Amino acid sequence: MGEESGIAMASEDRNLTQKIAKILNETRTSYATHNRKLKELATIRSKLSSSPESDEEEDSSSSSSSVRRFSSVFFKTLTPLFVAAQRRTAAAERVVRFVAEFACLRCNSSDGDSDCDEFLEEFLKFLMAGSVAANRNARFRACQIISEIILRLPDEVEVADELWDDVIDCMMLRVRDKVPVIRTFAVRSLSRFVNDPENSDILDLLLEVLPLEHNPEVRKTIVLSLPPSNATTQAIIDCTLDVNESVRKAAYSVLTNKVPLQSLSIKLRTTILKRGLADRAVNVSTECLKLMKDQWLSNCCQGDPIEFLKYLDVETYESVAESALEVLLSEGLIMPTDDKSIQQYILSADGEARDESSCSASSIQLMEPEIALYWRIICRKLHISAQVKGSDAATAMGAEAAVYAAEASDANDLLERILPASVSDYVDLVKAHIEAGPNHHFASRQLLLLGTMLDFSDAMLHKTASAFVQELLHRPFEQELDEDGNSIVIGDGINLGGDKDWANAVSKLAKKVHAAPGEYEEVILVVVEELARPCRERTADFLQWMHMLSLTSLLLENGKSVHSLQGKAIEPEEILHALLLPGAKHTHLDVQRIAIKCLGLFGLLEKKPSEELVRQLRAAFCRSPPPISIMACKALVDLGMWHSPTEVDKALGEDLLSQFEDESIDCAPIDLSNDEEDMNFKMLDLLYAGLESDDWRAFTESSEHESVKATVGEGFAKLLLLGEKYPSLPASFYPSVLGKLIALYFSEESKEQLRFKQCLSVFFEHYASLSEKHKGYVSKAFVPLIRSMWPGIDGNCKSSSYVVSNQRKRAVQASRFIIQMMQTPLYKKEARGEPESQFDKSPEDSVQPLLNFTEDGLAIRIAIEMLSFKEKKTAAEKAYVAALCKILALLHLKPSEQNVIKLMKNLLSQLANSVCSEKELLKDVNPILEHLTPLDVCPSEKLTQDQANSIFETLGVSYNLEITATTTVPQTPAPCSKRPPQSRRRVSIEETSSDEEEEVASPPPSALMNRSHRASKAAALAKITASRVKMSNVDEDDEEEEGSSDVTAEDSDESDE
């Protein structure tokens, strides 16, 4: 009976397996069959649970065993989906979805629900076992099905807490799986539990792995899984800077759907908009627009743009608010209604809006900053639209021109309805806001910019506006008193009104009002001459000096040349000698700073910089406090780039030029505290001294944390980039300054100077790729830079082991950084132009300059540097040489440069001989030698002394390399010759015919080095072919062989030439 029941049970299992397999196969075709197949599979499970055996026993354990039996057969049938190494095909994805739906299926009866719950528990246990399998596909399918089940499972399903804990632990383990797709489904599985306070460890895990994740799909899934909270908001916003477009879009989607506007700080709101609206990907910017339009503007602000601007703090983040308004206007989401305009803020005496026909006095209602910005952007949009449509109407014809003209007319009509009715009303409106105090300073500036859209062609209107401009120009700096009763200027103390934006607004309005040629300069110079009177009489205080100099700075910034200032109220020479130079020597530091700025601007307008101006800037740079030194440094750099450094030096007089016969940069320390010594050096020497000085590390009080050294570094970076425009710069200037900038980039003191580091990072990214010459300068800068950075070399002070270790790490980082710059490919424009330029070059310049620009030249420099140390080395020198060996292994030498390969073998052979007693160094040298051996095409052909000296002369290095005929490569496996008898025979023949070979005129050493890559390859092939011919005829006749050898040598020489 037992055997018969077992056979019957096996037969039933086979039938059950076939039914389940048939259903699963049918679900592979389409999702439309899933509902019907779910019912069929649920019927099979219910029939198995209600079998006659279970009815007769009437025991709950029978139903449980039936579910386990069904589960066992179901799992076996499903196993091929886990084992087979298949791709994510559509058929397999349909099966996965069907299985997850079946696991989440619920029945109407209580008995059926218990069977479903039991099957679900068994299935989850089966899947957890698969999630820890060694097979990659098994883990993937298990995590995929678990994630589908968790996301589809209804809330009312009861599952044991212990089982859920096991599932969560298993998925948290899979979050760190090495397969990205497994990590993705593990994160999806955990997304449903991340909001549970009891599972805070899940959120901590996701926040931990998010910045470390390399796969964009996993990062996207994590971002979509994060809940809105104070802990996750910053992480989500950080993902708006992700390198992958889909991740950035997912971050904005989460911000739209989960994060309310009120929960974000003003800084985070503006950061989100600034990044999203400026994103290059259209999908990301569209998602950001959706966030701003649907969530923030419509839901939170009920479509009111003024209310929306209040959430952005327009006074602090004006550019972001302006960009947001422009986007909303371009999308047609906001537009002023008929009952709103600027005119409603200009009220008549009876309290009603004042129109153009009203003659009563006006009273002004002050605007809030958001309203002022809103109307400025609206009016600018309408003004530009009217101009564009008017231009289109002028160029079009017929009906098209009429349409454009109508659109331009509508825009102008709307603009006239919004703007003040008259110029006097506009002036009253601006004056009221200016007199209201600092709290309305922002609104006043917005209203000033509105004046550029008004028409001042009428004489009366022009007179009113001109008087208002005069008031603005005469308006002094705002001030306050400190505890000691001293006056303190409010603002930056440089620009008119203490704010650069305010000065620009005043300048734009003045240019609009005084649009005639020369009228703008004349008006400002009249005010300057008036304000300069007490300054000339020495009765003015520092505030009057600053006011006068700020106006002068505004004039010089907008001037075209010194010639445009001649014939006005005050002559340019008088401005320089009576105002600017005395201001630069004023006792008050703020007056000195703004005067130095004006001197720099004045020098840019001159055809050639004057001597007094240059001397004053040099003196201010050397002997003034950091804020003034920074301003003088900027002025000197600008003058040098505009007029060239040579012209700036010539301004000091002919007698001084005789002291600069040596064009190289003087790297000796310059005592800048000496009143006379600094004048004995050129401008570049002076700036370089400021770059090297250790005493000038003080920062200014500005928010940018500027320093003198950072300012000089930025100036030198500009000069290096534009060096081709200054042919008079000495050749040694480039590698010296470049090395110093790299050293500053990796120094400790530059960590806090974020702006300076950002500037240098952009500079280094492009510098080496712009030109081959730049790569040559990088190559020349390598050895002096790394030698100066390495502790214990050239008298570098020694310190603790911790400090020495950090210094070595920085030196290694700098060396690898330089190698990366050398290996960076040139931009396509330079690469396309290279063959033509090389074709036009003479034979002497076609190869030798290239060696100086490539990695081959750098390799020779490094090898010579390693040989410069004696056999007995200190610990620092050993570490230095070992580091250079590792750097040398990173270089890619060209097999076509055979002379370079042979020279490197000679140099490294000598190095190997010198370090033969030092096993660690020898281990680093031998692999490089073994790598060079197969690159040598003709090992029997030795490098001559003249060829080596020619290479050294090309690189500009001095090294006495003695090459003998018996030079061999020590401890390096030499390649075995394929024909040893013939090679020995050839050597004897060459010895016997040496007298004849001496009579043959050999080419000069330079000719051997001045052939192109293609000529080198042709020469090598010719020599190999000729040697084979000689070997085949070696047994015929010795005389004939000698003749053929001479012919071969002549052919080789000719090919070399």
From TrEMBL:
Biased composition, class Acidic residues, residue ranges: 1034-1057
Residue span(s) of domain Nuclear condensin complex subunit 3 C-terminal: 547-893
A biological process term (GO) from this entry: cell division
Main location: nucleus
InterPro entries assigned to the protein according to its UniProt record, in alphabetical order: ARM-like, ARM-type_fold, CND3, Cnd3_C
Biased composition (Low complexity): 1017-1028
Gene3D superfamilies the record matches: Leucine-rich Repeat Variant
Keyword Ribonucleoprotein: no
Entry's localization field: Chromosome
Record keywords: Cell cycle, Cell division, Chromosome, DNA condensation, Mitosis
Renumbered residue ranges of the record's region Disordered: 43-64, 969-1057
One cellular-component annotation, GO: condensed chromosome
Family: Belongs to the CND3 (condensin subunit 3) family.
The protein's name in its UniProt record: Nuclear condensin complex subunit 3 C-terminal domain-containing protein
Taxonomic source organism: Capsella rubella
